[in-house]
Amino acid sequence: MSITDWPEGERPREKLIQRGAAALSDAELLAIFLRTGVTGKSAVDLARELLTQFGSLTQLFSASEQEFCAMHGMGQAKYVQLQAVLEMARRALQERLQRGDALNSPRAVRDYLQLLLAGRQQEIFMALFLDTQHRVIAAEELFHGTLNQTSVYPREVVKRALTLNAAAVILAHNHPSGVAEPSQSDRLLTDALKQSLGLVDVRVLDHFVVATGQVLSFAEQGLL
Questions:
Q1: Cα dihedral value 194, 198, 201, 203, nearest 10
Q2: How far apart are alpha carbons 44 and 60 in whole angstroms?
Q3: CA angle (140 as vertex; 135, 146 as ends), nearest 5
Q4: Model-level pTM?
Q5: How many whole angstroms separate alpha carbon 179 and alpha carbon 199?
Q6: Mean pLDDT across the stretch 67-85?
Q7: What 3-state DSSP class applies to 42?
């Protein structure tokens, strides 16, 4: 049965209009993006298949072009459309952070970092550089490492903060392992960065560890 044969209240598009996007399942939201299914499968069926194959929306979003296009019914055009949607979401969240106090928008910070870092196969260290009102001046990926570790040089972070005339920073990195619990090396690095940046009057407001479905805050854990 095609989606057009479903009761109107169960069709993803009509359901979104009537009840809002939050009322839809991951598969229903993805089906709206896909628009059409393939022979023998509705868009919702195809969406469920994609989620089963990749494990989650986050993993699907971080899939390579080759991995995405290997799925039946997918292709380069759909991959490009998905990347465009994700980038628009990132930019919208970054604009929100640039307009207001990042400390008063913890959800926006978490959502932005999830979109940027969750599901990445390489460990990435980044920083949000903030002005005196805690508005984001720049969000930059500073160091890239292997699956297990990355080399972060405090002097380079300090140099970038001074170049941008930042008053504070929010640090973040991902754990490709999928576990957001900070390691001992994460704690030592945070202490080293806090000390180095403090010498030039730049405050470290938080350090987030991002994993699939999880974002851990050093500040909330009392680790700063």
A1: 20
A2: 15
A3: 140
A4: 0.71
A5: 32
A6: 89
A7: coil
In what helix (H) or strand (E) does residue 208 lie, and over which residues does it extend? Answer: strand 203-211
Q: In this predicted model, what pLDDT tens digit does every residue of 133-169 receive, in sequence order?
A: 888 899 999 998 865 556 888 999 999 999 999 999 9
Q: What is the pLDDT of residue 60?
A: 87
Q: What pLDDT is stored for residue 128 in this prediction?
A: 93
Report CA 101 to chain centroid distance, whole Å: 19
Q: Which residues of 79-113 are buried (b: 16+ CB within 10 A; e: fewer)?
A: beebeeeeeeebeebbebbeeeebeebeebbbbbb
pLDDT band at 190 (very low <50, low <70, confident <90, very high): very high
- Residue 98 to residues 11, 87, 129, Cα–Cα distance (Å): 37, 16, 10
Which helix (H) or strand (E) segment is 147 a member of? none
Q: Collapse the DSSP code of 199 into the 3-class scheme (helix H, G, I; strand E, B; otherwise coil) and give the result.
A: coil
Task: Give the DSSP H/E element, type plus range, for residue 72.
Answer: none
Nearest to 148 by CA among 169, 117, 176, 120: 176
pLDDT at 196: 95
DSSP element (H, E) containing 28: helix 26-34
Instruction: Write the single-letter amino acid at 11.
Output: R
Strands (E), 72-199: 124-130, 136-144, 168-174
Cβ-based neighbour number of residue 169 at 10 Å: 25
